[in-house]
Specification:
Blueprint (H helix, E strand, L loop, with lengths): L9 E10 L3 E9 L5 E9 L2 E6 L6 E8 L4 E5 L2 E3 L7 H13 L1 E13 L8 E12 L11 E5 L1 H9 L6 H13 L2
Parallel strand pairs: 4-9
Antiparallel strand pairs: 1-2, 2-3, 4-7, 5-6, 5-10, 8-9
Helix pairs in contact: 2-3
């Protein structure tokens, strides 16, 4: 088994420190293989989904939006958190695609799944390839101000190389798309 050392770690306590609308922050006490008790932060997340929208002409749609954590605008694939733990990832991706870009996908195919920050968070994002797009109109959340921008794949790869695109889900989706579409 790939992770056969799991039995050497024992979480003895998980204490809720903060409950937010998107995340829960915990303080874990974990007994490590040498017998010491480690104190680790853990962020619990209900999960999210995203879509890589590709137009009939082969262009990729990204959303330009303000990110408070970075204090700047970013280009990203449309994404968002699940409305509940039971919401299917594909439904979340379809909803976020339409809300943020104003396009509904005729087809949504699974592209990849990633864990965003494995050192301290369990957030999982499933990413779907969205094609056969039909314009329906944006339906953004009250706090969103999003611009939809079209890019050629070649330009996006250049933006990744020169550090203009840094969002992990977006970079991962574009690179996976490049590999799978060959």
């Amino acid at each position: 088994m790939l992770y056969d050392d799991m039995e050497k770690y024992n979480r003895e306590k998980r204490e809720l420190v903060y409950q937010g609308s998107i995340i829960s922050v915990y303080r874990d006490s974990v007994r490590v293989p040498n017998g010491n008790l480690a104190k680790w932060d853990f962020i619990g997340h209900k999960g999210a989904a995203a879509a890589l929208p590709v137009t009939a002409e082969g262009k990729i749609l990204l959303v330009k939006q303000w990110r408070n954590a970075l204090d700047r605008f970013t280009y990203e694939i449309p994404a968002g958190g699940k409305e509940g733990f039971d919401e299917p990832m594909i439904e979340c991706a379809a909803r976020e695609l339409e809300e943020e870009t104003g396009y509904k996908a005729g087809t949504l195919d699974f592209l990849l799944s990633l864990k965003t920050t494995v050192a301290f968070c369990n957030e999982r994002i499933d990413i779907f390839l969205a094609r056969n797009l039909v314009l329906t109109g944006q339906n953004m959340d009250e706090d969103e101000n999003i611009e939809v921008v079209e890019f050629e794949l070649k330009k996006l790869l250049e933006m990744i190389r020169n550090g203009e695109l840094q969002d992990s889900k977006t970079v991962s989706a574009i690179l996976a798309y490049q590999v799978y579409e060959k």
